[in-house]
Design goal:
2 copies of one chain form a homodimer. Helix content of chain A is about 40%, strand content about 15%. By secondary structure, the first copy, chain A, is α/β, with parallel strands linked by helices. In chain A, strands 2-1-3-4-5-11 form a 6-stranded parallel β-sheet, with helices on both faces. In chain A, strands 7-6-8-9 form a 4-stranded parallel β-sheet, sandwiched between helices. Chain A has a two-stranded antiparallel sheet with strand order 10-12. In chain A, helix 7 links the parallel strand 3 and strand 4. In chain A, helix 1 packs across helix 3 and helix 8 packs parallel to helix 9. Chain A is elongated and about 85 Å long. In chain A, about 50% of the residues are buried. The interface between A and B is large, with 56 and 56 residues. Chain A binds a DNA duplex through helix 2 and helix 4.
DNA sequence: TTGTAGGCGTTATCAA
DNA sequence: TTGATAACGCCTACAA
């Protein structure tokens, strides 16, 4: 009726089990279990007796046997590729908030690059995690195949749709197009783009931008490869300007790069933003709003993005892909819009 | 000899168990277990046979029964109070890196305020977490007492040493003193301090600063309450300047506040940094190094801080408190130091 | 509504 | 070095 070790066995931290509570309350162990199972049928009298006993013993249900039994752990792996960009802080916050609502817990994995992603998530499978969310884009079919084999739902942000991978994207192509329109509408004719290292969202932002610029009858934008950090944006812009290029409209892969570019522009005497060159970033990180930057950029609701990731994780049957919208936030690095005719033209279909 | 469900029972995701591996390898389940237990004695022949079988079946040890048995989960709760300040990204990175080295996993808790801290960690005790690290300072004895009762080691950053709480601190008092010395050595006579909301590290930074300023024979610094964000720093400085105050040396509770203050100062025509007012921040977040700021500040090795947290968690017997050093990083918001005599005076003992 | 019994997949113990 | 067996603490039948 009552297993030996359920009281305490001296060697380990003694844990109060449902058996001890049962004994104190004068009921069976199953009854205690039912009291702690939402929606189970227990008489009020018994429930109160049990809760009183549990309270007295400071009983905390142990999730592990239940996981062992049901196969569901309530644990979700959350994979990050580093935290250097404040935009990740927003996403992480969104994910943790959404997980909390569903009573799921986040096991944080700082993977660095998506090479390690497979290994790390595989590692975590020993905890029987229910799923994984990767803020780090899954870039290779090999990694995707590895994740597939785990047999758990995997959501990845801004990845290509490999296999059963579920993808939540920011509307990168639209952002690129809107950036082009915003700059062209404001009179820019010499466009330039500061690129990140190759990944799906970078590629889409760029292609959306370039194609729309060309569709608007302007030459293909100049291009410089920066990366994703302030320093890389700064260096790339210094180099671009040193090469003699004088674009009058600049779109950057993200805000950090844009802010780096702004600072580089400021080193050139007589070159003014937005009079001589207009700049648009992407993400709307807090620093974009700082007085020293007042950067025009695309805002995306990161809390929503986090929520979408968690929701997709639970979808059954699996939805394969959703994207979150973005809004152009106009600040001081672009001029005010005057021309209405071109504004209308910006509604034209993409040169796909 | 071989339990029924160990192959697959149709209802759940079928998991390969040590029993299936044992059967394929022609050994007992215990032997399989030993092969996957570091340091257990198994003959080479058997080990290879088992590993081959495990490989063939893609066996992944299930951690849950082991946890049930040993009481050790390898899970550590990591409590954050939000991610708005980039310094937290650094700390989080340090913690995850150190945990990984010890083969521990981080369960991320975004607590918002330390009120929820107790509840959330208590929640996680159902996973039999081995310990908790709170980047959020534990501010009340009540929360600390709650954590005490969990019977697991808890490390908190920059908290007061309540009960069995283990504390890792940045050297806040020293930072305050060094900031005072740095400003006074550079000729400041009218000091001001932008404070955060009350918490242990804010209090120590301020008290270290104020006392040293007074010890150096100057009047008590002016004080304005900002908070911990750029916006709050900006607003507080705008107000301070509007009140007619014209300090020539400013120390801020952190870099975000300092950068906000810098931007506020820039709104006043003719007020130059560092000629008219010198500014020092704290944390050395990436933005402090940006060209637009070039903020003099105190750098702290956040990776080290993370490592310390993890190490303290494992200390037995528990060490109660350590602190990590910081270094003054001189940039463009302070003047260059000329006077040597005062430099020597800065080595004088604190007016404690 | 309540209790009994079996199983989840490991580790720990002890005997062979 | 290996194997058999008993926990670990819960959930899920099924019986009362």
């Amino acid at each position: 009726m009552c297993p030996a070790g359920s009281t305490s066995n001296g060697k380990r931290r003694p844990q109060v089990s449902s058996w001890s509570v049962a004994r104190l309350a004068g009921v069976s162990q199953s009854t205690v279990s039912r009291v702690f199972t939402p929606g189970a049928s227990v008489s009020l009298a018994v429930r109160e007796k049990v809760l009183a006993a549990a309270d007295q013993l400071k009983y905390r249900p142990n999730a592990l046997p239940a996981i062992l039994q049901t196969g569901r752990s309530g644990l979700v792996a959350v994979v990050m590729g580093g935290f250097y960009n404040p935009v990740y802080a927003g996403i992480l916050h969104g994910i943790t908030a959404a997980l909390k609502e569903r009573r799921l817990e986040a096991v944080l994995v700082d993977a660095g690059s998506d090479e390690n992603l497979g290994d790390r998530v595989d590692d975590l499978s020993r905890y029987r995690i229910d799923g994984a969310i990767s803020v780090l884009a899954v870039g290779s079919a090999k990694v995707a195949a590895r994740l597939d084999q785990l047999g758990i739902p995997v959501v990845a942000v801004n990845s290509r749709p490999f296999g059963t991978l579920r993808v939540v994207s920011t509307s990168n192509r639209t952002i690129g197009r809107d950036a082009a329109d915003a700059l062209v509408d404001r009179g820019c004719t010499q466009l330039a783009y500061l690129a990140g290292r190759d990944n799906p969202s970078q590629r889409e932002r760029e292609s959306g931008f370039s194609k729309r610029v060309v569709a608007r009858g302007l030459p293909t934008p100049q291009r410089a490869v920066a990366g994703f950090t302030y320093e890389e944006g700064y260096a790339a812009m210094v180099q671009l300007l040193a090469s003699g290029a004088r674009p009058d409209g600049l779109f950057c892969v993200n805000d950090l790069v844009a802010i780096g570019a702004l600072d580089a522009i400021r080193t050139v005497p007589g070159l003014r933003v937005p009079e001589d060159i207009q700049v648009i970033g992407c993400d709307d990180i807090p620093m974009a709003a700082w007085q020293q930057n007042r950067l025009t950029t695309f805002a995306q609701d990161m809390t929503l993005l986090g929520r979408q990731c968690v929701e997709m994780l639970g979808n059954d049957p699996p939805a394969s892909s959703v994207s979150v919208p973005s809004t152009l936030v106009l600040r001081a690095t672009t001029r005010t819009l005057l021309q209405t005719p071109q504004q209308m033209q910006s509604k034209a279909p993409a040169a796909q």
